[in-house]
From TrEMBL, chain B:
The keyword Signal applies. Keywords: Signal. This is Phosphate ABC transporter substrate-binding protein. It comes from the Bacteria. Residues 1-18 form the signal peptide. Pfam families: Phosphonate-bd.
């Protein structure tokens, strides 16, 4: 309720008006009416006195003429007696100048308020005497004022009573109902619909109150409707959320199988090249599908506020480099050139961000810049360190751009600019997610664009000196290096998974990783088997018949004997609640479907020190030197497959056995200008090359693929491909020989 | 002889008592006041004497003078000079006078006027109430003219008060009055005046009887009034007139006014 100043309230104002009116009346009476009255009384009395004096002059003419002064004296004394305001009379003989009256000496007018009146006594035009009269009307004026005061007092009292009555009436009939209304409005504003005001009057105020009460009823009715609609909307939203979560699970589960199984072809020596290529295509399509699902899930998470962030200090230069690397292939395919400016200025600077999410942002921006660029266009990534310890990273393209009006549509879900006309595919939620991610990571995103000139997305983040946070990170890095350096120990792993296909994928992956695995179809079976056997790690699905993963974990954590068991959830349901639930019941880790080999391995290694005490002796691997393997990006290899050279060798062998065939096919298709197959094969080789971290080779493949898509072939590229492929093959063979020999 | 007369009178008294007598009063005051003063006295006299007396009042002195000149009243109360005139015209005889007081005129002058001798008033204006006012005017003028051989200009100003005021205001050099009225004036007026001369004394107003009235009745009335004056119980009835000390009046004591030559100053109506 807005506080009303007391002097602004209707009540105070009405009383104030009455008080002012009263004061005004009093002033009018005191300063005007009364003096005027006094003057009027004085004048009136003076005139009357003058008339009386005139009469007196007539009546004393005879005594004066006959010198009958006794009669004169008697007359004058009589007059003085009957006129109390006549103070004194003097009569001077006109002829002699003698004072005829009074007998004694005359004092004249001496008092305040005395007034002199003169009258000549004339007989036959001859002046007989001159009468001087002293009058004083003070007592009359006082008497009149007193009377007037009394009158005013009475009038004023009556007026005051009337006005107070009026004010009271106004208060009762208007102000009080208004205050009641004000109070009711306040209650209504707070959502109290039982705030009806009593309608006691059958006038305009009553109508207003009646209107208010009706309005309250209407609002209450509408509110009820709104509530039911809100409940419906909420339940719909919940249903949508549930549906999305469920869909995510339902989509991820088969996708897991698809991706996992498609991946296995790379390791299947018996599979033909075509099968392997097809499997790669399946994998690529699956990956794309996974991206879309992730996008939708991200949007759902944003809308429901469930988006998860793992904040840490991340060297920003590396993240940008990695992001750029990620889209390099795409850029090359589109004949777009990418220019990095000021990257070195980011040396030694960290952002406090979720690295994965930041990469997602960069990839989104970059992929947009690629998608909406013109052919032969350019992309600029400009990095600037601003004065106030902020960094701006802008991604500018030379594409078609958009108008200012379109800017507002940019960040609206599913409202994709040019969706009607453009052939470019997209969901229209990328930028929505991007902006949300940036803002959630305490950054800012702005955009400028000019039609046909291109657009520029600018990110602004706070930056931190790496040196100030190095000590903490150093320890962490050392630890991780230590564990990473270790080979995957011999572990006994129990997998609880109801889906047979997923069981197979995991089985293959675990076998590949050299891990002993036992499979059960649900939590109950897992529980039973745990009673008699000892395992180091339990990989469990969350949603399973009979006993789900969460319940299983709870049961396990209640038994001391099984305290050391590492439990890792494997689920497609990656919404926040699920993750929280997993950690709440006591799980140690979390894997999302589709499970990547590297992730699986990393996680197992991570928990191996917990799982087993036996220290596996570290066989110092020959540090791959960049000089020796200049075709291979060893750091990328490690990040993909870990640093286990055996695994590397296994993957390399698979490449060695299959890639040669692919190169032959590429050459053949290039010669025969079979662009569709050329594109397919070069894409396949590109993926395979990436798997062995042969980045240059992959880039060449991508360019070939890009040309093939444009129905052309660059002979030089084919030559480069042959040359690079030979080198890659040599280096891979060398690596395998070097690392396989001890085990052989 | 004397006894026979008395016996005769007593025999005659039965029808004499039945007769009603009139009593005229000089209009010194208005008739109501005169009634209030005289009626109780006359009632008492009637009571004591068995003589029925009716009070007659008139509006003015001239009417009164005319009335007694015509002999309208059986008894009358009048001033001394009137009694002289009445005696001359109708033979009225004085019965009662006030022995307590005498009538005497006074001549007043303004205190600071510097007049201390009557000779200073030669040919000056002197105020008098009226020409026929006995003490103030007639006696004074007679004295001044006859005893001091003064020639004056009389100014008649109706009342004694006017006389004194004229003197006090200096409009006349002197004024004639009587001591009684002078003493009745306000003190401030009296303070301004001083008495320069006193006239000769004369008896005050008499009650007179017409000669047609039976002397026995005259006697009865005279005796009754004298008795009332003696009685403590009825004395107050005479005080209002005023007659302080009633006594038998004689014609002679009033006749001396004629001797003093007042007639030449009297103004006939």
């Amino acid at each position: 309720m807005s506080k009303i100043n007391w002097w602004r309230s209707l009540r105070a104002q009405s009383y104030l008006a009455i008080f002012s009116f009263g004061i005004m009346l009093i002033c009018l009476f005191v300063f005007y009416t009364l003096p005027e009255q006094a003057r009027w009384v004085n004048d009136g009395l003076s005139k009357t006195a003058q008339r009386s004096l005139q009469q007196l002059s007539t009546s004393i003419t005879t005594p004066l003429l006959t010198r009958q002064y006794a009669e004169l004296y008697e007359e004058i004394n009589n007059q003085l007696e009957i006129h109390p305001n006549w103070k004194a009379i003097k009569i001077i003989d006109a002829e002699t100048g003698n004072q005829l009256y009074p007998l004694d000496s005359w004092n004249g007018a001496i008092e305040r308020g005395d007034k002199l009146l003169n009258q000549d006594v004339v007989f036959l035009d001859k002046p007989l005497a001159k009468i001087t009269l002293v009058v004083n009307f003070t007592s009359e004026i006082n008497e009149s004022s007193k009377l007037h005061y009394t009158l005013i007092y009475i009038q004023f009292s009556i007026l005051l009573l009337i006005l107070i009555g009026l004010a009271w009436l106004v208060d009762l009939r208007i102000t009080s109902p208004l205050r009641a209304l004000e109070h009711a409005f306040t209650r209504l504003a707070k959502g109290d619909f039982e705030c009806h005001v009593d309608k006691q009057q059958h006038n305009e105020v009553g109508s207003v109150i009646h209107g208010f009460n009706q309005m309250v009823n209407d609002i209450a009715g509408n509110q009820q409707k709104l509530n039911s609609l809100r409940i419906q909307a909420e339940s719909a939203s919940k249903a949508k959320s549930d549906f999305m979560a469920s869909m995510s699970h339902e989509l991820r589960t088969p996708l897991n199988a698809i991706l996992g199984l498609a991946q296995l072809y790379d390791y299947d020596q018996s599979a033909s090249e075509i099968q392997k290529n097809n499997a790669k295509r399946i994998y690529g399509a699956g990956e794309h599908l996974l991206l879309l699902i992730n996008d939708v899930l991200d949007l759902t998470a944003i809308e429901s506020g469930n988006m998860q962030f793992n904040f840490e200090y991340v060297p920003i230069k590396r993240v940008i480099e990695e992001s750029v690397e990620f889209v390099n292939e795409l850029i090359n395919a589109q004949s777009i050139s990418l220019h990095l400016e000021g990257l070195n200025s980011l040396d030694g600077l960290c952002f406090y961000i979720d690295e994965r999410r930041f990469k997602q942002v960069m990839l989104n921006l970059l992929s947009n810049a690629i998608k909406y660029n013109k052919p032969q266009g350019k992309i600029y990534i400009r990095c600037n360190v601003l004065n106030n310890r902020q960094c701006s990273i802008s991604v500018a393209d030379t594409g078609y751009g958009f108008t200012e009006e379109d800017e507002s549509r940019l960040f609206k879900p599913f409202d994709r600019l040019g969706a009607e006309t453009s052939k470019i595919n997209g969901t229209g939620i990328g930028l929505v997610i991007t902006r949300e991610l940036v803002e959630r990571m305490q950054g800012k995103i702005t955009v400028q664009s000019e039609v046909n000139q291109g657009s520029c997305f600018n990110l602004l983040f706070n930056s931190f000196e790496q040196s100030t946070i190095a000590s903490h990170k150093q320890v962490a890095t050392e630890n991780s290096e230590h564990t990473n350096a270790d080979a995957l120990p011999i572990l006994k792993v129990l997998v609880a998974e109801d889906q047979v296909t997923n069981q197979q994928v995991l089985k293959q992956q675990l076998t590949l990783l050299g891990v002993q695995s036992t499979f059960v179809s649900n939590g109950e079976q897992a529980w039973q088997i745990l009673q008699d056997n000892t395992f180091d790690v339990l990989l469990t699905d969350i949603q399973m018949p009979l006993l789900d993963g969460l319940e299983l974990t709870k049961r396990i954590r209640e038994h001391k004997r099984l305290n050391d068991l590492v439990i890792i959830a494997v689920t497609a349901n990656i919404i926040k609640k699920n993750i929280d639930d997993c950690y709440t019941v006591g799980m140690n880790g979390f894997l999302t479907k589709p499970v990547e080999l590297v992730q699986l391995k990393t996680l197992l290694i991570e928990h191996s020190s917990v799982a087993i005490n036996a220290h596996i002796e570290h066989t110092p691997s020959v540090e791959p030197s960049t000089a020796m393997y200049d075709q291979l990006d060893m750091s990328l290899l490690v990040s993909m497959l870990g640093d286990d050279t055996d695994v590397h060798s296994m993957v390399f062998n698979a490449f060695i056995q299959t890639a040669g065939e692919q190169v032959k096919l590429i050459k053949a298709y290039a010669d025969s200008q079979n662009y569709a197959d050329l594109s397919f094969q070069s894409h396949g080789l590109k993926s395979a090359s990436k798997s062995v971290a042969a980045i240059k080779l992959a880039e060449i493949c991508q360019q070939i693929e890009h040309f093939a898509n444009d129905s052309s072939v660059d002979e030089q590229l084919i030559k480069d491909l042959t040359f690079n492929f030979e080198q890659v093959m040599t280096q891979l063979s060398h690596y395998c020989q070097q690392h396989e020999s001890p085990s052989n | 002889m004397k006894y026979l007369l008395i016996i005769f009178c007593l025999i005659q008294s039965s029808w004499l008592f039945a007769q009603e007598y009139t009593f005229g009063v000089v209009p010194q005051y208005e008739p109501q006041k005169l009634n209030a003063i005289w009626q109780p006295l006359l009632d008492e006299v009637s009571q004591q004497t068995g003589v029925t007396i009716k009070l007659i009042t008139v509006e003015s002195i001239p009417v009164f003078e005319q009335a007694f000149a015509n002999g309208d009243y059986d008894f009358a109360y009048m001033n001394p000079w009137h009694s002289v005139i009445a005696n001359e015209k109708q033979g009225y005889i004085p019965l009662i006078k006030d022995a307590g007081r005498k009538l005497q005129g006074v001549l007043v002058v303004k205190k600071d006027s510097g007049i201390d001798d009557l000779s200073q008033l030669q040919n000056e204006e002197i105020a008098f109430p009226a020409p026929n006012a006995l003490g103030a005017s007639l006696l004074m003028r007679a004295d001044l003219a006859q005893l001091y051989d003064l020639s004056i200009k009389p100014v008649y100003v109706q009342t004694h008060s006017s006389v004194y005021l004229n003197v006090a205001l200096g409009t006349t050099k002197a004024g004639g009055g009587v001591l009684g009225t002078l003493k009745q004036q306000p003190q401030n007026l009296q303070d301004k005046l001083t008495i320069l001369y006193h006239t000769r004394e004369i008896s005050r107003h008499p009650i007179v009887a017409h000669p047609r009235v039976d002397p026995a009745v005259q006697l009865k009335v005279q005796q009754a009034i004298l008795a009332i004056g003696q009685s403590e119980k009825y004395k107050h009835l005479l005080a209002g007139i005023p007659i302080i000390q009633p006594s038998t009046a004689t014609l002679d004591e009033y006749q001396q006014l004629t001797e003093w030559g007042l007639r030449s100053f009297y103004v006939e109506n």
